[in-house]
Structure formats: C-alpha cells, structure tokens
Amino acid sequence: xxxxxxxxxxxxxxxxxxxxxxxxxxxxxxxxxxxxxxxxxxxxxxxxxxxxxxxxxxxxxxxxxxxxxxxxxxxxxxxxxxxxxxxxxxxxxxxxxxxxxxxxxxxxxxxxxxxxxxxxxxxxxxxxxxxxxxxxxxxxxxxxxxxxxxxxxxxxxxxxxxxxxx
Length: 166
Description:
Layout: E1 3-6, H1 8-18, H2 25-36, E2 40-43, H3 44-50, H4 56-64, E3 70-71, H5 77-89, H6 96-103, H7 109-117, E4 123-126, H8 141-148, E5 152-153, H9 155-162
Parallel strand pairs: 1-2, 1-4, 2-3, 4-5
Helix pairs in contact: 5-7, 7-8
C-alpha cells in the first residue's frame, strides 16, 4: 500500500487558496479520514513550517491530526545524505541563494524527498511544486525526485490514485 507524504504547500495552498477551512469542509474531513487511515502522512519539518503561522490551519492540524501523522525525519538521515550529495553536485548550476535555502536544516524540502526515498517503493511525495529543471534560483522538489527516482504527484493526482472524492 502506497503512503503519500505531503509537503507543506499541500496544506498551506489548500487553506489559503483552493479549499478554505470554512468553505470546503469536505476536503478537510477527507484529509482527516486519510490521515487516520495512515494513507497520508508528513514529517516534522512540515509540521514546523505549518505551526509557524499561529493561524486557523495550525489549529485545524492540532485538533484533527494525530501525533503520529508527522513522522520524525531523523529516521531518513541516510537518504538525506544522498539528497544533499545530489544537491552539492549541482552547486555550479544553482545560485547560492537556492543552495542555501535547500540545504537549510529547518526547511522541509530536502527532508521530505529523503523521507520518501528511504522507502521508495511505498512512499510518494505530494507537492504543488512543478518541475522546472532549468530554474537556477530555486531547487524544486519534483526535480530532486526525478534525479533520485522518487515518485511524486500533486494533490488531485493523489486523490485520483486513492479513488477518493469529496
């Protein structure tokens, strides 16, 4: 059974743009259900990014997601090293700001790829980011996934793969 590892932007964009908590209640109920079934998970770094805003999204997550939803990214340190080695091999391509952001230990992107990579057959990254391999000022999650053979998709493709509607 595949488990979907959701990025921060999955929650943040849903909350702020496409599925506001007070309007598209069924979306949030579906997330709660999928999280309790263990079909979607995330990591501690994503939790930190979400819980950094002291807003309704943070309150919703605290009230509706179990403590086990946000996995400890320390368990993926071996594969995190592989992600960092890949990024460092591209140091001549990416601008310093992009490298610094991606390599920042407080940022979730490298860790989310590493967490999925640590169980590549069963974990799929879910992100709103789109591959932009020619972009130099930002390292995009899909480009790292492509380089390291990690599956990724967007939220709607995840719901389709799960055969879920809301």
